[in-house]
Sequence to fold (293 residues):
Amino acid sequence: MSGFWIILTAILVSSACALLGTFLVLRKMAMVGDAISHAVLPGIAIAFLISGRESLWILAGATAFGLIAVFLIQMLQGGGLSSDASIGIVFTALFAAGVILISLNAQNIDLDLDHVLFGEIAYVQWDQLALGGVDVGPRAVWMLGITLFVIMVLLTLFYKQFKICSFDPALAAASGIPVALFHYLLMGMVSMTSVASFDSVGAILVVGMLIVPAATAYLLTDRLGIMLTYSVLIGAASSVAGYYMAFLLDASIAGCMVASAGGLFVLAFLFSPLHGVLVRRLLRGRGSREVRL
Fold:
């Protein structure tokens, strides 16, 4: 039964990350996910100081600091800094602030930095959620399930708006779509997913699941709807394969999940019918032979 909960948690994490990662990759904002996943640390620390382990406070604090990070990145870019420099400055500064807060209040916060950064999905089954004195399953499964449900509802309701904003922000603005609102809504969902995933895979590995499945799907199709489906399937397949790889190698489950996703990306990068390196080279060679003939 423990394996079931681990795999289910992994699939929930990868699915939520894959859906959001698709839009981050299309917007060329993949590393913003990295910035947000680190920048939420001071929000988590402050929420711990205020409320202890109250999940809603932690979620609110993390989401708020994720949005603050996005606002600061946008402000620095507007001031003339490049995108990569803005991201690097903001996420390192906020992450350092979170580390300082935790180190200064270590006696009041039972928050392990290694746990936040790397996570341990094998332990999710031990933190059970009790309703009416009855255990109803791991707390992480419920939190991630609710997070995934919210993401799916929002993306379904505003699919057209997110699509237009991702491909042509100027057209979206001309059509009366509030581009900034949907930008910050997407960033808010990334923040919420990052903190909901901390207990299972940690901040660093959230970045991998945000980027790699979506980047793999990007190589396989040119249609957004299919890309979203492929991203979720690739994330789920990576989760299952990563679990069994970790079982065989006696290694980190979360690490094997991302390694599996990386392996699928390499296969797509080489053999994708649309963008595969080897396929393009083969087609160029065939075209050259036809020209010579």
